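Please fill in the sequence for the structure shown.

STRUCTURE ENCODING:
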């Protein structure tokens, strides 16, 4: 093979796949800490995930999953109120899309796809070797689907793809239109409803009783907040469902993914409450875009799509330089000047609005009210830090349940940070790979830095917080006391009387340094003192007291509303 050989000249692959158009993730993301608005998933784990994760962790990994996925089928059917024979579990909604294309299409068949929409619909047609009939949108800036033309072309199609709400335009397809298209089509009509759980869109499953050629695609990646599991499903009449099930590769959905999705179905009420809060935050984000003069293309589910004065590539570069990553559409000329932002935690959404305001030379929209949606968003943050000495990833939620998973390679540091999370009721998921073969210094220091940064990011503009916290905690003969002020000025005073230089593999001299790194990066004033006879007890009492003081200081004061606890008006 020579360098001059182009894809169409490669003799070993099918011609229609010689120049593939793979799904395009956002490209050019800086290798540094960024806020992600491009993934179209939720920014935080659902509150019920830790319990499910522990159950998954206890499962055997030596065997394949059961091929019929009967428990998951029953759980999904119970959630939807349908017959389990209509459910086909899949590895994400994407596998359901591919299975549907393989079931419906062969060489010479035709499939209809409206533009713009999710890329995999068209890609699946090419994979099947079928003819792709793309239908351009109606004239106008909102890119509404030409549903009348799609309905007409359906008469000669073996497969019609529909997406409701459509990604990225947010358009919902009425039931009467789906019924007309399904009635016209001699093949299958697949309705991708990946975003249905966010509410606001109609559940079209009742149409199955009238239109037996319908297939619905759903996922646990969006409203359920479990994108990493890659769990989804198709819903169809039992004959089609059985045919799809037979095509699915054996064990394509892992044991952990199937079990996670099954157990999640018991938490549907919490999921609905969470997605309502995400919808409200989406509306706040959309209103901010409009206030800045951006033209909205669509809002739906957990995302907002808008046009800007720049090309998508130009906007991406401007925002990426500020640590903000949005989704652009280099593959779709219809969206050359557009971007999509999925809802992040409110503090990050405020950063995006402020950055856009600065680029446009306009005042930033008002920041979020920290009391709204706190049960869902939990004032969380995701921080990643990579240096030549450490590689750290930290996800934290201040208003959590105290679930802490810490792996730093330094045992006593893990123990103290776990205690900090547990007693502050902060959810903490921290992993660190550091140069501990030298000593623990860089690991301790950088863990303190990212934890402080995460607390600072989660607090946003600090409106509504109590600000001050003071707590004492005993551990047998030892007594610790901590006082915290989220003053906006980072400093620490640590008076801890250790008898020895080491606790396990952790030098006791690094404990004050850890607290100082947290204080400086959280922009907090922290005082800690502890004494006793056993160094382990002394350190643990100090961290328990610090945890309780932090929890008090960052708690929301309902009497303060959205005001800042400072006579200066800011912290």
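FILLED IN BY: designer on duty
SEQUENCE:
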């Amino acid at each position: 093979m020579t360098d001059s050989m182009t894809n169409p000249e490669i003799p070993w692959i099918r011609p229609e796949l010689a120049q593939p158009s793979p799904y395009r993730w956002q490209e050019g993301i800086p290798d540094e800490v960024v806020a992600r608005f491009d993934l179209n998933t939720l920014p935080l784990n659902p509150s019920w995930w830790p319990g499910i994760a522990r159950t998954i962790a206890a499962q055997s990994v030596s065997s394949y999953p059961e091929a019929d996925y009967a428990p998951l089928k029953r759980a999904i059917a119970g959630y939807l109120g349908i017959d389990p024979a209509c459910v086909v579990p899949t590895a994400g909604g994407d596998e359901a899309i591919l299975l549907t294309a393989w079931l419906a299409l062969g060489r010479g068949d035709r499939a209809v796809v409206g533009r713009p929409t999710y890329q995999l619909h068209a890609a699946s047609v090419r994979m099947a070797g079928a003819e792709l009939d793309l239908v351009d949108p109606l004239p106008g800036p909102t890119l509404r689907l030409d549903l009348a033309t799609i309905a007409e072309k359906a008469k000669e199609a073996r497969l019609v793809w529909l997406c409701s709400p459509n990604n990225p335009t947010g358009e919902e397809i009425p039931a009467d239109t789906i019924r007309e298209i399904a009635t016209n089509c001699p093949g299958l009509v697949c309705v991708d409803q990946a975003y249905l759980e966010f509410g606001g869109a109609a559940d079209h499953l009742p149409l199955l009783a009238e239109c037996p050629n319908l297939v619905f695609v759903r996922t646990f990646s969006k409203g359920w907040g479990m994108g990493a599991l890659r769990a989804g499903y198709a819903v169809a009449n039992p004959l089609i469902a059985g045919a799809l099930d037979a095509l699915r590769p054996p064990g394509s959905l892992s044991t952990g993914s199937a079990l996670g999705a099954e157990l999640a179905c018991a938490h549907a009420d919490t999921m609905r409450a969470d997605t309502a809060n995400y919808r409200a935050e989406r509306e706040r984000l959309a209103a901010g875009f409009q206030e800045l003069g951006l033209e909205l293309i669509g809002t739906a589910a957990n995302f907002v799509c808008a046009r800007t004065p720049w090309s998508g590539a130009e906007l991406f570069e401007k925002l990426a330089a500020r640590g903000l990553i949005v989704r652009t559409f280099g593959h779709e000329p219809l969206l050359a000047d557009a971007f999509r932002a999925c809802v992040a935690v409110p503090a990050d959404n405020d950063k995006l609005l402020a950055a856009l305001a600065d680029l446009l030379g306009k005042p930033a929209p008002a920041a979020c009210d920290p009391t709204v949606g706190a049960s869902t968003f939990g004032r969380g943050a995701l921080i990643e830090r990579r240096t030549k000495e450490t590689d750290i990833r930290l996800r934290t939620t201040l208003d959590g349940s105290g679930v802490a998973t810490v792996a730093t390679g330094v045992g006593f540091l893990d123990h103290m940070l776990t205690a900090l999370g547990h007693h502050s009721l902060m959810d903490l998921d921290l992993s660190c790979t550091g140069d501990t073969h030298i000593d623990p210094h860089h690991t301790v220091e950088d863990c303190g830095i990212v934890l402080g940064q995460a607390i600072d990011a989660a607090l946003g503009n600090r409106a509504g917080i109590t600000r001050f916290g003071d707590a004492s905690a005993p551990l047998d003969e030892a007594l610790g006391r901590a006082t915290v002020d989220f003053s906006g000025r980072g400093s620490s005073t640590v008076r801890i009387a250790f008898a020895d230089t080491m606790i396990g593999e952790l030098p006791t001299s690094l404990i004050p340094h850890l607290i100082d790194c947290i204080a400086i990066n959280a922009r907090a004033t922290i005082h800690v003192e502890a004494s006793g006879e056993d160094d382990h007890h002394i350190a643990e009492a100090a961290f328990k007291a610090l945890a309780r003081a932090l929890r008090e200081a960052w708690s929301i004061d309902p009497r303060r509303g959205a005001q800042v606890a400072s006579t200066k008006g800011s912290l």
